[in-house]
Amino acid sequence: MGKIVILTGAGISAESGLGTFRDEGGLWSQHRIEDVATPEGFARNPTLVQNFYNTRRTQAARARPNGAHRALARLQRDYAGQVLIVTQNVDSLHEAAGAEDVLHMHGQLDRALCSGCGHRWAAPENMTPDDPCPACAAPLTRPDVVWFGEMPYHMSEIWDHLRDADIFAAIGTSGQVYPAAAFVQDAARAGAHTVELNLDPSSVVSDFAETHFGKATQIVPIWVDSLLPQ
């Protein structure tokens, strides 16, 4: 069987109660991106940024995987070929559903990072700017998430997987954030069949050979069923 590479975005976790970046009235709407999701914003007001991510971390810890997460874990478990999940999400709902070896290109809320020595560790529920790094003791603790202007994680590995994929699927992504928005074009150039599963068409929907629209909990299990022996 062929290799499937799946990119997931905020849309797959929305039905688990985690607001997307563009939700009106959600946590993101209460702050400017420049203030809470950039290195410059962290340098200006680290307390604001830490409190923002403390709230997001608490929300993510309370969330539970939904049917779409569970369907992808089932695909990874039962498909005869390789299934790799790459996610833009900083929650751990794929893992909670049973998925393995997920590549978190934007980091994880439940991880902490020392901006001095680069050490990473499990994040406590609440972090402050004065928290010392367990490795070097410097008070340079930050969330281990990728902010605007920073390079996403695992990019070399992800590009290699995309160019080796037989099927590339994007689930719950807006197609507005690069480099992830370019994954479909890269996979298609390498010969992959491309599939978009989304609530609404993304900004790059015309680049996909196959599309399915609706709630992730409805369309993802159906798509997974089509790939597995009945």
3D architecture notes:
- The chain has 230 residues and is of the alpha/beta class.
- It has a domain at 1-18 and 66-106 and 152-230: TPP-binding domain (Rossmann fold, 3-Layer(aba) Sandwich).
- The chain is built from eight helices and nine strands.
- The protein has helices spanning 33-36, 39-44, 46-62, 67-78, 93-96, 155-162, 183-189, 216-227; strands at residues 4-8, 83-87, 103-104, 107-114, 120-122, 141-145, 167-171, 193-198, 210-213.
- Strands 3-2-1-7-8-9 form a six-stranded parallel sheet, with helices on both faces. The chain has a three-stranded antiparallel sheet with strand order 5-4-6.
- Helix 4 (67-78) packs parallel to helix 8.
- The chain is elongated and about 55 Å long.
- This is NAD-dependent protein deacylase.
- Its main location: cytoplasm.
- Zn(2+) binds at residues 114, 117, 133, 136.
- InterPro entries: DHS-like_NAD/FAD-binding_dom, NAD-dep_sirtuin_deacylases, Sirtuin, Sirtuin_cat_small_dom_sf, Sirtuin_class_III, Ssirtuin_cat_dom.
